[in-house]
Amino acid sequence: MTANVAGYLLQLLAASWLGVEGYSEFASLLAVQLLCAVPALAMQNVVAREVVRGASLRAVRAMMWRCAAMVAAVAVVLIPVVAVVLDVGVWAAAAALGAAPALVILSGEQGILQGGNHFRALATVLAMAGTARVVPALLALALGGGAAGALWAGAAGIVGAAFVAGRIARSTTDDSGAAGNSGEPAADTTKAVGVLPVLRAVQVQAALMALSSVDLIVVRIVLDEVDASRYSLGTIATKIAFWLPQAVGVVLYPRMAQPTHSARAIRDALTVLSVIGVVAVLGAALAAPLAPLFAGADYAPIQGLLWLFALHGAILAVLQGALLSAIAVERTALAAVTWIGLAVEVTLMLAFARTIESLIGTAVSVAAVTTTIVAVVVLRAARTHPAPANPVLS
């Protein structure tokens, strides 16, 4: 919760300090940074699953560093691409991509704590990481560093957070063997943990993050600078509704990875996420008149749409829960539905959306259809095809 609140504060203050002319660049670079966090999110889920199944922490950390090196290489290649597509400077593009390798290591350490059911230590790391990422960025913005300066400062904070997270994880767990407290039989801890499971999880997380962020990239193509900034501010409501129930997946994920508890955990997760989503939409509708007070009068035209932005985030939160369960039981082919939804959304937005209303309406409609299909498939598969009892580490 602390990390999420800090992130929302950063975006609100950035919207106010950068104004409607400059905020869309910052928001778009944040969207790129979110996409760069995809390998990190996948890393946490895979590490947590393998720890539950008895993998040694030594093997897990070796895999984490291999993946971080791969991510760093890809980030270097993508810098000029991002600069051209978003029409931003190379320095700004590098700032958005620079934190990606450190995020992989940070998330891997979080996965070790999550898989071992060390939720108190995990909460400490999450709060620390969110603060370390946001506070330096706020200072950079306050000192006039602009979007690039804020992102570089945030990246430095993430590097520091990854180091501290490693110290906390090592002091909490036993490096010599498996750290899981799941009650499941321990696997052969001498086996290496391969990169392939992470790559399979990456494409699942990539589909979700792309679907939740692509509108912030398209908006700079189809709208003018002022409306693009207004839309970008509206997506703060989307992010709140999306990330608000994050703890549900964190807590229930280890149970999803256990064959004897998987089906019940999946049902519980989707139910709780749906209820929280309804509350988030109602909250956005009631709080909408306050938006111009925090962000400025220039953003008043979108206050009546904030409930719709929140609905988008709430739907995506349910989709995230369904896809997390797919990673937990290694049925990652289901991500194909989300990739199709992404293609449909981008096509419709580029072809027809020319207003804020049509953009968010398209995003909500595609997300709703995609989530319904994925949730139905996941629930049916959990009921009729339980997860394998003795998975093999690869």
Low-confidence stretches: 175-189, 389-394
Mean pLDDT: 84
Task: Find the count of extended strands (DSSP E, 2+ residues).
Answer: 0
Percent of residues in helices: over 70%
Q: Tell me what portion of residues adopts beta-strand conformation.
A: under 5%
Number of helices: 15
Output the radius of gyration.
20 Å
Topology order in helix (H) and strand (E) letters = HHHHHHHHHHHHHHH
Distance between the termini: 34 Å
Give the biggest beta sheet: none
Structural class: mainly alpha
What does the overall shape look like? Answer: globular
Question: Which features would summarize this protein structure in a list?
Answer:
disordered C terminus; 394 residues; single chain; mainly alpha; 79% helix
Q: Any overview of this molecule?
A:
The protein has helices at 2-36, 38-52, 57-86, 90-97, 100-115, 119-142, 146-172, 196-222, 225-243, 246-256, 262-287, 291-295, 306-328, 335-352, 356-384. The chain is globular and about 55 Å long. Mean pLDDT is 84; it is low at 175-189 and 389-394. Helix 1 packs across helix 4 and helix 11 (262-287) packs antiparallel against helix 13. With 394 residues, the chain is mostly helical. The longest helix is centred in the N-terminal third of the chain and has 35 residues, at 2-36.
In a few lines, what is going on in this structure?
It is built from 15 helices and no strands. With 394 residues, the protein is an all-alpha fold.
